[in-house]
Amino acid sequence: MNSLTHNPYILEMNNVSKTFPGVKALDGINLKVKRGSVHALMGENGAGKSTLMKILYGIYTPDDGGEIIFNGKPFNPSRPIDAIRKGLTMVPQEISPAANLTIADNFYLGRELTKGKFFLNQKEMDEKAAKILEGLGIPMDVTVKMSEVSVAKAQLVAIATAVSNNAKVIIMDEPTTALTETEVEQLYKIIETVKNHGIAIIFISHKLDEVFKVSDEITVIRDGQYIGTKPASEVTKEELISMMVGRDMSEMFQRERIEISDEIILEVKNLTRAGKYEDVSFQVRKGEIFGIAGLVGAGRSEIVEGLFGYKPADSGEIYIHGQKANIKTPLDAMKYKIGFVTEDRKLTGLFLNLSITDNMIMPKMSPYLENFLISVTKAQRTALEQKDKLKIKAPNVEVITNNLSGGNQQKVLLARWLLLEPDILILDEPTKGIDVGAKAELYKLMVELAKQGKTIIMITSDMLELLSMSDRVMVMHEGHQVGIIPHQELTQERVLELASGLTHN
């Protein structure tokens, strides 16, 4: 008898770790997925879920010392196609089909059915694709182009394509984010059908209700570490939250608390952007560090993008120093003395191929002009002052920014905005991807800026960072503001209860 029939697990990840420069992203993770089951993978933003799945999908290579067993054999994919050929497929959060091809053509993209050597067998592809979709309970006209298909249907096509690829495991990453309630219910039915085909599903979601609705087992990871696996029927929502947040609070950065002025610097009234956030209202005072919390898709980054004019709100009002502000572009925001350190410093923040000096002076070059040319001496003097002030570790200010560590790159970006002397500084995931020492330095700098009267709005997925640095925290859930918590009432459990939609303030 085949020994595989005795092994209930289609996938086993044992002691899997992943280190990036200066950061241990995963540390000894275990994940065992049973055949024909739905296994939820849970953890806060930044817990390591995506990194773990990218290892499974051949995007990242794990550190030495762990092992992955797939269908009873060692599994070490070096690219996604390796994983797909073995029977592991991912349905990402954002589907990117070949829009100009039909549903059937997308089904067989890269493995087209042919007549002889040179001609596509379109009829056979259409018939087989239609049959698979019908078998899953989602009949569609497979001759329709993907550009004409809704997000929900594109997702179902992706799942059906995985089934047609003889998938044994399908990873679903936040599959309900862009779906209506009716579409979500349809997805649940498809998941059940896929299970009945003997296919296992790794289900990644921050929505507790749907995790309990579809999952057989739940694995929790926290801060890159394995916390535990439990049958969904034997764990409560409260226990799950405790597993997700129960860190050692002694690791918190102990910041100096300062007296915050009563002066309101920023007031937001009923800010709304269709499909992203609705009726968001809050006030932030001079010298306050105001945290914004929420899970994936809650609308945190979108709100600050609206404040900065990067993606303006559809309606609502913004007041700065009591005066109504009209912010439609980042240039407008800068005129109102708002600075924005973006989440992805490499993609939307820094010019990596330019020097530290060039990056710092880029937004405002007028102070360094002499006879219509930039005075290198003036620019370098300013950059050197910022380098010393922010303790940027580099031999000189002409070093190419790409050669700096993540923490020092973040300081260069921060220096750029500080040179513009903002009254309001937005920090989106300010310590993402930097080491512990660099984090502590940035925390001290944030407190120093608050002491100087700067107003700081901070978005972070790091719970310890949120709790230790914030004077107040606004919590978002699926585009809605569900509470503002003062520092003295701030706990991990309270934040996650609100962020998960279990309670409202």
Automatic annotation (TrEMBL):
An example Gene Ontology molecular-function term: ABC-type carbohydrate transporter activity
Origin superkingdom: Bacteria
Membrane topology label: Peripheral membrane protein
Keyword list, A-Z: ATP-binding, Cell inner membrane, Cell membrane, Membrane, Nucleotide-binding, Repeat, Sugar transport, Translocase, Transport
GO cellular component terms attached to this protein's record: plasma membrane
Catalytic function, reaction form: D-galactose(out) + ATP + H2O = D-galactose(in) + ADP + phosphate + H(+)
TM region(s), chain numbering: none
Keyword Repeat: yes
Domain ABC transporter: 11-248, 260-503
EC number of the protein: 7.5.2.11
Subcellular location: Cell inner membrane; Cell membrane
Pfam families assigned: ABC_tran (PF00005)
Top-level EC class as recorded in UniProt: translocase
Family: Belongs to the ABC transporter superfamily.
Its biological purpose: Part of an ABC transporter complex involved in carbohydrate import. Could be involved in ribose, galactose and/or methyl galactoside import. Responsible for energy coupling to the transport system.
Family annotation (PANTHER family): CARBOHYDRATE TRANSPORT ATP-BINDING PROTEIN MG119-RELATED, GALACTOSE_METHYL GALACTOSIDE IMPORT ATP-BINDING PROTEIN MGLA
Protein name (record): Ribose/galactose/methyl galactoside import ATP-binding protein
Organism in which the protein naturally occurs: Gallibacterium salpingitidis
